[in-house]
Amino acid sequence: MKLNLSGKINKIYVQSLCMMFYHGVKFPENEENTDGLELTVNVSEHKNAVHCTAFLKSGDKEVSKEAKCEFTEEESADRTYKIAIGQAVYMACACITGRSSGYGILTGIRPSKVVAALLESHTEKETRDILLNRYLLSCDKADLCIEVAKNETAILKRTDDGKCSIYISIPFCPSRCNYCSFISYAGKKLFSLIPSYLDKLNCDIRKTFDTVKKCGLTVSCIYIGGGTPTILDPSQLENMLSTVGKCIDTSTLDEYTLEGGRPDTITDEKLLIAKRYGITRISVNPQTLNDTVLEKIGRRHTVEDFLTAYEKVKRSGIDCINTDLIAGLDYDDFESFKSTVDRIIELDPHNVTVHSFCVKNAAQIRSDDKDIYEKNNDTARSSVDYSIKALLEKGYIPYYMYRQKNTVDNSENVGYAKEGAFGLYNVYMMSDAHTVFGIGAGATTKLVKHRDGKEEIKRIFSKKYPYEYLKAEEDEEQEIISFFERS
Fold first, then answer.
1. 109 by DSSP, 3-state: which?
2. Which residues contact 76 (CB under 8 A, 6 or more apart)?
3. H or E segment at 483?
4. For labelling alongside 196, which of 51, 55, 127, 251 has CA 20 to 30 A away?
5. SS3 for 325?
């Protein structure tokens, strides 16, 4: 797509809006544009208002849309510009494509953050009106965002700069799903790295907890993710968990999560070890309860494997069980996903996270299927809508939300939970509420400090691949301590 922008315009924002309607679109600047798309946007101020015109050409189709937003005392000039530009571009793209997005002109990863800010100075009704009329959200998405924002805000009151969380990365999986873009590895040669990886990981766990103490921080949550952490054999899992247990009294944690992920890696022995070392929350994730779809996406486990693993987790006595589902998977359809949601609700887990299928750059399916961006739009929309309705009716509470680029039908990922069973780490990590220390290959440490009413964030990235991580000798302790000591 060729962009012609005139006036005070954020190019990345315009690109994000266009990508909601044209998944995978590119914006070449120094080479010929070959997709037949051209967007011209002009914005200016006139009589205390921002005026924007968006002219879109797509092959032999053309459309022009205008938007006008008046300046107000409660809204910054930049925000007024953004809304006017967003409305004009959105309406032009929607007119040409015949599509719409429930999230209107909200393009960011955290729509609930915008809504939470609105709720600080407006009633719920006023906030809903703003979302519908200025941000162009649909009624159901506006209501969902408001509920999530209220619950997120309540959770965030439980933390502050003096607290932190820890993420421990186990980047190995029994197989690689075709939609996955995480730094995770499968294969005997790669599995042979696990003993050495754990030796270094345990060393870094001890170093990190020592750094946490020197910074005067209190650990709120620990999340062991991947990959699939339960790919470790019982002795390896116990070795890692015992290392954590020697560094902190796990009974003081607000939450301690072990991501089981693959049902085919969960055993009674591993669950006994997890319970013994203080794990309070565990994920066992089917993604779908359709054997054909599971096989097509490379999961290498069956529905029966999941049901067996779920019963084992339920018997283990671990306090909180989470299950993850993905709406809009290739090869899936609405009736199949509806059946999955209904069966999961019957199992009565404490948490249910509904993800919308997202086409990641590094995912195998992107290279295997060039038309994947356009598939399953209707399935994803109806599936997500059904999951919202069904989970709310059963008393599940939406408590965190995020959106990603190139998600089928521009849908969202939402965490639902029973009262008192919210997944705290997910909220803290997504909201930049406090520092998160990342340990292991592909992990990111995110330092957070509020100074003079402003949020300061610094990220430190671990080596991406396990073999790089094993060779790394960086020591960031002084850099981290200095970040917190600086006035």
1. coil
2. none
3. helix 477-485
4. 251
5. strand
Q: Considering the domain 1-99 in this protein, what is its CATH number?
A: 3.30.160.100
- Alpha carbon distance 177, 182 (integer Å): 10
The C-alpha atoms of residue 363 and residue 282 are separated, in whole angstroms, by 25
Residue ranges, CATH 3.30.160.100, the chain: 1-99
Superfamily for the 158-439 domain: Aldolase class I (3.20.20.70)
Q: What is the mean pLDDT of the chain?
A: 91
- DSSP conformational letter for 445: E
Question: What pLDDT score was predicted for residue 177?
Answer: 60
Indicate the pTM of the whole model: 0.91
How far apart are alpha carbons 73 and 351 in whole angstroms?
A: 41
Q: Residue 223's closest CA among 464, 412, 401, 429?
A: 429
Peptide bond into 317 cis (omega under 30): no
Contact 197, 469 (CB under 8 A): yes
Q: In this predicted structure, what is the pLDDT of residue 274?
A: 98
Could you tell me where in the chain the CATH 3.20.20.70 domains are found?
A: 158-439
Q: Are 50 and 8 in contact (CB under 8 A)?
A: no
Question: Phi/psi of residue 414, each to 5°?
Answer: -130, 135
Contacts of 188 (CB under 8 A, 6+ apart): none
For residues 162-175, give the mean pLDDT: 92
One-letter identity of residue 44: S
